Amino acid sequence: MPLPDTVYCAQQINIPPELPDILKNFTKAAIRTQPRDLLLWSAAYFTALSQGECLAVKDRLEMNVATQKTDTGLTPGLLKALHKQLSPRQTCSKEELQKKWKGLCLPMEQLETLLSLGSFSSDIDCMEFFALGCSALGGTLISSLKFACEILTEDEPGGAARIPFNTFTKLYTYLAHLDGDMPQVHIDNFLSSLQPQVQLQQGMIKPLDFIHWADMDLSPPDSSNFTRTGSRAE
After folding, report:
1. Fewer CB atoms near the end CB (10 Å): N or C, the chain?
2. What pTM did the predictor assign?
3. What is the pLDDT of residues 22-80, one digit of tens each?
4. For residue range 93-107, what is the model confidence (pLDDT) as tens digits?
């Protein structure tokens, strides 16, 4: 004999008071991030939430990505979300990076390409990997540095996109050295040329300070390691 349907009244159902806010925040995060695999991303989201870690969430919706019919892999928004997850530490293990990358539903072959280009050991320098991510987005040295400023800046969206010059110097020097053909004197001259403007801006630099170098002989030749970073990571 089938059991009768059980009828509950509102007083019998205990709804955790924090549940509505959790679901609301999750829904907003999913809409902003537009994960390729919602279930995979959701697992990473709630795992990080339960452990008090930075969430794998974009700051805002990338409209040009949200309307695409095919997955394009790494985007500025996803790179920023990944960097925020990793940046509390200077280094991370390959396993942890793979976990965070997978949680953002990014293609693993793209990660392996970046790791190979960086020739990382067991410990991965988070800022150097971030620089490689920018190179995958930019394709040229100057455009990669522009992406780095736009991602790392604390300025409002559409603002000057300023970052500390010491951070810029580390990113530029790493990417320039990645290209085995760029002379050290070229690197030094480029950084020296920016110093007057940096001093006027209290140690900060913005894309407008260096973007004009895109028309000059700064980008590595087509045969360089750096140029292959962007093409192989696509």
Report:
1. N
2. 0.84
3. 999 999 999 999 999 999 999 999 999 999 999 999 999 998 664 555 556 899 999 99
4. 999 999 999 999 999
Q: Residue 228 CB: number of other CB atoms within 10 A? A: 17
Provide φ and ψ at 123, rounded to 5°.
-100, 130
Write out the two tokens for 49. Answer: 């939430």
Nearest to 150, CA basis, from 166, 140, 137, 139: 137
pLDDT exceeds 60 at position 156? yes
Token readout for 94 is 């390959």
Find where tokens 């390691």 sit.
225
> 107: buried, middle or exposed (CB in 10 Å: 19+, 13-18, 0-12)?
middle
Length of the chain: 234
